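User: We ran a pulldown and think these components assemble together. Before we commit to crystallization trials, I'd like a predicted model of the whole complex to look at. Sequences follow.
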Amino acid sequence: MSDSQLEQVLRQRQNSHQDIVDVDEPVIKLVIFSLGEQHFALAGESVKEVLPGTETVFFVPGMPASVEGVINVRGNIESVIQLHALMQLPNTVEKSSLHLTSILLARSKHMHSGLRVDRLLDVLDVAQNQVQPPPEALPDYLKPYVSGLLQFNGLAVAVLDVDALFNAWQTGQA
Amino acid sequence: MSSRVITYLPVVLFRHQGQCYAIEASAVKKQGQFDRLATEVLGNFSELFTAPLASAESAAVQWLELQGNAGQAWRLGLSAAAELIELPVQCVYPLPAILAALREMPALHALALFQNELIALLDAAVLQQMLERKSTECKKTL
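Assistant: Here's a predicted model for the assembly, 316 residues in total across the polymer chains.
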């Protein structure tokens, strides 16, 4: 007995269901920012808060130049560190342009600190597969800190590993 | 045994190059005016900074006598007057972990934000060790 057309259609529909590819790509939130002419990102889950760059920073003596000082965040203090030295970029932030900068309150598994960035560009959700592995041509000094590369508005954005950043500071590599 | 709740921390505050530093008052035994000919100090606070200072900025004008690690008192020369103040405990913060890892001055122990100014709270025992080391290094180079 041959199948009715209806049976064939149902079978066809069932098979087509099996062929459906899950297009719900996992997405990650990224906080994209610039340091000088370079563009970087941190995973959104590692950035607790973004503060304006004009927050009063209290200088702490006896610290390396990369440490700006501490800020008062709702009755608690938080350190503020500049990423420039670690990324081997000149620090061109002047007092007059502080209003253009931001302080990202970043946290790793064991540490947290404010990170001064020159410009906060965007906070967006991107499909995980848009983040490519870091290229071989990446400068050696960036390799320990870059976990991926993303194209954003025609710009190459290096995704930073916040644990690696804090680890470098903690172990005195930076 | 119930412990008393501390609301104020007495500290001896002094300035150096525009920055505020303080040592817990319980570690300070005496203070006095520095006499270049008569006062013997383990070292001047300014010696702990690598940046060279004009002699007028680094010259000691006062001394603090502190309780030493081995029970013996030692004297610290200061280039500015020191004063006793009481810090409300809610102004005192432990050094953030990342700053503890990065500090170049091991005696830096905690921070206080008081009257819109940052005060670096120093550990007198570590300060003594730093000055002793400095003094030994100086003797070696001589």
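DSSP finds two helices and ten strands in chain A. That may be worth checking against your pulldown data before setting up trials.

User: Thanks, that helps.
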